[in-house]
Amino acid sequence: MSTLAxxxxxxxxxxxxxxxxxxxxxxxxxxxxxxxxxxxxPRSHILADRSFxxxxxxxxxxxxxxxxxxxxxxxxxxxxxxxxxxxxxxxRWHNAPWCALWKLETSTEWFRQLMANCDAWxxxxxxxxxxxxxxxxxxxxxxxxxxxxxxxxSKTVLARLWSPRRG
Length: 167
Known about the structure:
- There is one protein chain.
- With 167 residues, this protein is α/β, with parallel strands linked by helices.
- It has one domain.
- Helix content is 21%, strand content 24%.
- It has a 7-stranded mixed beta sheet. Strands 6-7 form a two-stranded antiparallel ribbon.
- Strand 3 (75-77), helix 4 (85-92) and strand 4 (98-103) form a beta-alpha-beta unit.
- Helix 4 packs parallel to helix 5.
């Protein structure tokens, strides 16, 4: 199922959507640059050469995660927390560096699937203050960073996390 099928244009444009929250600017800068932000929005702080946005009618889940030359892209994903399953499955099989921000829910099937092919994951030491119009506040849940394909977190990112665990 594609992202567009899950999140119609009206939802993508809605400022009340809980799936339209941005990675905080300071964290985005610490993460470094990616070839592709697969689940972006116009307010994103992620440094990426290209991005897919529902607001532009792009379906990051159904699109190719490649560089312009066709080689696999390094990927950032802050996907929809309301339906992470297909995004985690796609990340699981991506054969290039990737990093993703998810709600910490270790008892879910999507978490189990993601752990099957990640290099490591770690919970954040503090709850993240996400950004979205009308709702900039500390999340009422814990978040985790998951990575694979040889992506490595910087020292500043590692300082935000509890000790990484192997997938």
